[in-house]
Amino acid sequence: MQLQNMLKQKIGWLESKGNSPGITISSRVRLARNLNRIPFPQKASREEQEESFEKIKDACEQIAYFKGAPILNLQEFDRIDRQFLLERHLISYEHSQGDGLRGLVIGDKELLSLMINEEDHLRLQGIQPELELQQAWDILQQIDEEMNKKLDYAFSSEIGYLTACPTNTGTGMRASVLMHLPALVMNEEINKVLQALNKIGMVARGLYGEGTKVMGDLFQISNQVTLGPNEEGIIDNLGRVVKQVINYEIKGRKALFKESKEKVMDVVYRAYGVLVNARKISFAETMEFLSKVRLGIYFDLELDTKLDILNELTILTQPAHLQESVGKELAPSKRDFIRAEMIREKLKSGK
Amino acid sequence: MLCDECKKNEATIHFTQILNNKVTKFHLCQECAKEKGILFPSLDEALFEGPHLALASLLAGLSDIGTPYALEEPKVARKCPNCKATYDDFRESGRLGCSECYRTFKKELLPLLRRLHGSVQHTGRVPLQKVKVGKKGKEVTELRRELQKAIEKEEYEKAAVIRDKIKELEKKE
After folding, report:
1. Subunit contact A170:B122, Cβ cutoff 8 A
2. Which residues of chain A are within 8 Å of residue B170 when distances are taken between CB atoms?
3. pLDDT at residue B20, as a whole number
4. Which of A88, A286, B34, B46 has the fewest other C-beta atoms within 10 Å?
């Protein structure tokens, strides 16, 4: 376990600007890029993996933005460290599990990161707080251009950037927004919304991206189509759809509060009661109750906490984060005690 | 201004189409623009009007990897000369072996890309320089950058000329 000092670092995309009522949490844009002719990481031999790793590492070292940025070789990190990076949304689930020579470059405040030898040679990611897709894209395209000065990208003038999986071919761009949709879950409209998203070329995923579970009513909504529309088009379209989803969620919240105010208040205060009093709590439960308290803040209910603290808890109570914070591996049941203690303290001190 | 199509509603969508050196300006209302497939369908419509959208039927059921490759396809004997991957390798793993695989399996991949994305024409960013490509490829890449710039500046006549040059070069390939 070597990443404890990262616990003290500020996560830039959690710094809420207070512009939104907490329905959109963060905006992310990622680009998939590959080096021309070198086999994609899954197919590459050890030597070929080293070749792409070194080339990309060299490129990063020459870019001003990444000056002093840590370049990690994931092989040197244990299971808990890798999960910790996944929990901070710096790497994908696949990258945390896979073997072979894999890397991660972490930019300032974790607003920009770069995975080396994931499914593609290069995955660049930009994250911003709330609904700021355009800003995330603006920064990302500059870095992409800088990297491109040093690297020969695999590209076809017909079908665009060439990626290991054809679902990313073209722009190689996946833009996504992490959304908190408790009202749509409560009024059971969520499945209709998710199906509708599918119909217009969007998809909703769980908290940690592809193939992961939805927890705490948090959904990642992203584009599916990467070939055809250009980057600006993808971002505009996603932004527009997210705004529509925000409207549904707000409508749902208003209806809930109008029709069953007492019931909603009960759910919120019970959740808060558990969080401030529990002595043992799992991560899934934590997420469920944090979601309800977030909703309570939206309704201006009298709660002795604020959104920033809830955001912080969402990150810090994750299993690997807890283990990093105590500096040792813990059995799940033991973690649940420490988690409850941490939540009580944060809620008490952060009023 | 009234819509060119229905001549009833106020035109709110204005755009310029350039086809074979001919510039046509369109002024359409929301309804007609949607019918012509110019506007992206909105989430509201997908929610309330049922699955009549072309893109919808294309993408329904393709939400995650797996389904598109399960289709019965004839055996492909070719091997990628660069990484030695076969099309069966791709069918099994869902991942191609290297950038050259796109050339080797172009015939098989184009219909798949069309099913996945509804298009097989990239219109987005273009890399700065293509180091190892032939003269013609380099020229096309540069022209595409120019094309993109022209479109951004809304210089459509210039864009059309560049586009036709690209087509000409690609025909020769």
Report:
1. yes
2. 157-158
3. 52
4. B34
Q: CB of A25 within 8 A of CB of A311? A: yes
* Interchain CB distance below 8 Å, B121 and A158: yes
Which residues of chain B make contact with A167, given a CB cutoff of 8 A?
A: 65, 116
Q: Does the structure show a pLDDT above 70 at A74?
A: yes
- Token pair, residue A220, equals 């990642």
Tokens of A83: 């999960």
**Which SS3 state, helix, strand or coil, does residue A124 take?**
strand
Tell me the angle at which helices A190-199 and A231-259 cross, rounded to the nearest 10 degrees: 160
Beta-carbon neighbour count of residue A51 at 10 Å?
Answer: 17
Which of B45, B96, B153 should one mutate to test binding to chain A, selecting the residue with the greatest count of A CBs within 10 A? B96
- pTM equals 0.80
Residues of A in contact with B121 (CB under 8 A): 158-159, 227-228
- Whether the CB-CB separation of A332 and A284 falls below 8 Å is answered with no
Say what the alpha-carbon torsion angle A252, A258, A263, A266 is, to the nearest 10 degrees. 90
Instruction: Find chain A residues with C-beta within 8 A of B131's C-beta.
Output: 36, 152
Residue B1, pLDDT score:
83
One-letter identity of residue B42: S
| Beta-strand relationship, A122-129 and A155-156 | unpaired
For residue A145, give both structure tokens.
């251009």
- Nearest CB neighbour to B102, from listed A162, A203, A240: A162
- List the structure tokens of A18: 């207070």
Residue of A nearest to B105 (CA): A166
DSSP string, A29-80: EEEEE-BSSSPPTTT--HHHHHHHHHHHHHHHHT-GGGTT--EEEGGGS-HH
Taking phi first (over 0 means left), then psi (-120 to 50 degrees means alpha), and beta for anything else, what does residue A170 get? left
pLDDT value, residue B98: 97
Alpha carbon distance B96, A173 (integer Å): 18
Q: What is the CA radius of gyration of chain B?
A: 21
**CA atoms within 13 A of residue B97's CA, in its CB half-sphere:** 22
Give the phi and the psi of residue B104 in degrees, each rounded to 5.
-60, -45
Distance of CA A29 to the CA centre of its chain: 10
Contact B117 A170 (CB under 8 A): yes
Length of chain A: 351
Per-window interface: B 54-73 vs A, CB < 8 A: 55-56, 59-60, 62-65
Assess contact for A5 and A324: CB atoms under 8 A.
no
Dig out the tokens for B25 from the structure. Answer: 């300006």
Taking the alpha carbons of A266, A271, A277, A278 in that order, is the dihedral positive or negative? Answer: positive
pLDDT at A21: 75
